[in-house]
Amino acid sequence: MSWHGRARKSLKQFFTAFATLAALSLPATAARAQGHAYVNMMRSSTTSYFYMEQSVEGEWGKYTANVAQTDADGSKKTVAVPQTWKGYGIGTSFGLEMLKFVQVEAGHTFVNVSYRDDALQSLSGSRLHAGGRIVFTSPAVNFEAGAGVQGSRLDYRKQLEEGEFYGSGTYYSLGLNYFLSSHFSVYYQAKTENAHLERNSGQSSVKSIETNSTLMGLGFRLWL
Questions:
Q1: Where are the domains of the chain?
Q2: Rg for the chain (alpha carbons), in Å?
Q3: Is residue 128 within 8 Å of 169, Cβ to Cβ?
Q4: CB 3.0–4.6 Å: which of 69, 78, 104, 106 could bond 130 by disulfide?
Q5: Is the overall model pTM greater than 0.85, yes or no?
Q6: pLDDT tens for residues 24-62?
Q7: Dihedral through CA 110, CA 115, CA 120, CA 122, nearest 10?
Q8: Architecture of the domain spanning 3-223
């Protein structure tokens, strides 16, 4: 199965799992009167909580490609070409919350982005991340602020050109988390990320790429 096929399958599984878990959680929530405020109150600051999360993110931003060019006199140079790219990611993460205040997590995201003006110019592959968040609880919704590092391995394609890019970067995030029960919550997260990607193999005029993107995503967490 191609990467795009696996991505579509993962996206379908995400929404199926989200709908199923939400449907199962809501009756239990009503039956036990476990609203968001109640769950926050009952969770202990002396207990650590493990969680698994699934998310879907939309991504867009500035990708600056450093392209090798040859002048008419035969001299070679590298030209920075700014472009607007957009796409999506499907992520899975595992984390630990301590003191009802600090979260640490690591995870993996399937990435598929393309140049806004040329869908045949694309990047797809994997992005790993590790980071932390600070949680501010409230009766209405919990606020989260985080930061971390990431590493990527992405396949670049542009008509007959192709290459494999590796890179690293950082990200910052702000989010909202709402408990539907003590074992299930939904969240919204906005992120900014900056990364540097270097071509490791393949035949392409693009030598490296600098990214500066905004990501917005929805997801759910299973608390163990």
A1: 3-223
A2: 20
A3: no
A4: 106
A5: no
A6: 544 444 434 458 988 998 898 899 999 999 999 999 999
A7: -30
A8: Beta Barrel (2.40)
